[in-house]
Amino acid sequence: MASVRVNGGGDEGAEAAEQGKISSPSGLPGREIPGGYGVPFISPLRDRLDYYYFQGAEEYFRSRVGRHGGATVLRVNMPPGPFITGDSRVVALLDARSFRVLLDDSKVDKADTLDGTFMPSLALFGGHRPLAFLDAAEPRHAEIKRVVIGLAAGRMHHVGPAFSAAFTAMFDAVEAGLDTSGPVEFNKLNMKHMLDFTSSALFGGTPPSEAMGNDAVTKAVKWLIFQLHPLASKVFKPWLLEDLLLHTFRLPPFMVRRDYADLTAYFAKAAAAFLDNAEKNYPGIPRDELLHNLIFVAIFNAYGGFKIFLPHLVKWLARAGPELHARLADEVRAAVPAGGEITLTAVDRMPLVKSVVWEALRMNPPVEFQYGRARRDIVVESHDAAYEVRKGELLFGYQPLATRDERVFDRAGEFIPDRFVIPSDDDALRRRLLEHVVWSNGPETGTPAEGNKQCPGKDTVVAVGRLMVAKLFQRYDTFAADVKESPVEPVVTFTSLTRAAADYTIVASLALRERR
Fold first, then answer.
1. What CATH number is associated with residue 344?
2. How many domains does the chain have?
3. Model confidence, pTM
4. What pLDDT is stored for residue 493 in this prediction?
5. Contact 117, 78 (CB under 8 A)
6. How many CB atoms lie within 10 A of CB 209?
7. Which of 208, 223, 404, 452 could be bridged to 216 by S-S, CB 3.0 to 4.6 A?
8. Residue 58: which H helix or E strand, with range?
9. In this structure, are residues 437 and 399 in contact, taking their beta carbons and an 8 Å threshold?
């Protein structure tokens, strides 16, 4: 179990006198933001190649931190650069303390900053700006988020049964593949079945794989690619050609128009009852605008998130090995007797399962970046200094460095499964740790609301992670998998699965048969 370290910064007030221009609330010394942007056009292109190909994202930032004496607030260029981006300049926040400015909606404006230094064409969203692109201060933000929060809360009781169906289908396929052809890639099955899960959990009705056939996943992923291709890398070789095609010009939206029309038609039918109800209760939001927001929530936010998060979760479980697997199996089977159903209430009584999920979200937040523009001149504090940011400057946070900050977490770069398993009489310590688990655009202790930018599906994502771990170790004693890291998500390939002990499995199977 790891302890938290809190840097107050209050003993350094004397040093602040050396730069009277910057007033630090904590008495930290004021400093100019180090770094720079180099030669226009040329430097952003060079930095893009470093970021995507020569260094990779993490080394890109770490090398610049080292170059500037350990400073974790820096001026850097962020991809994609020319010609997609008109301005690549950002102020990067690379530690847990400075990163928190991006979670303060009173200090940063997040209008059209979801993807950073560029904005996808609205033609990809039916001509509307989805909720994720709206700033919390915009009136439309509160109106739409109210509806989406209501949807997430109202459908939460469907999450367990829908995920159970998806999990069973996925792992039946894994077992069949291992029996007949050897190692089985998890990512492909996850992509297929989590799209059905997302739709069933949110809206019910016929899942996309039945309504649209095998093309459902292809259409959804293609639509995501047309939004995010400027941020993708190492998808195909040669990389020089990839850089030219993905990072230099926007892919024209008309190339995905038919696919998006098919997705729109499906969700118009699947979400019809919800849309009918929303028209009555929220007449200020046109049905068409809400429909396109629901598509974005379902495919971009939910499905896109699970596509990244679950492979990372399984990766860490695979690397942890049989010892952790045995502990998790014991906890799950003690809370849910053989034949029992794993519910959201049940997983809430599994402290190790909960800790594993939080730790996976800390190590690999599904969305690595956060952006926002300074609403006014503000002072940003790192652990060691205070920096002045001018109104309108674009702030950027690289979340993996913030959530693996050694000044906050012991052994921050390690996956420690029981990091958040803390005695109930010291719940304040757990809360202080969870304050720095910020994958949801807010602290894990926070609550999504109409007036903030925290993910409205935060609780659903955590619940699905817990269900994944619990169901995995209800069904299996242990497993083995190969892991290959890639820029967005690891490729996880199962090489073996060891079913739960026969007596437990038989009782569970008989109970399931009786319920049917």
1. 1.10.630.10
2. 1
3. 0.93
4. 98
5. yes
6. 17
7. 208
8. helix 57-67
9. no
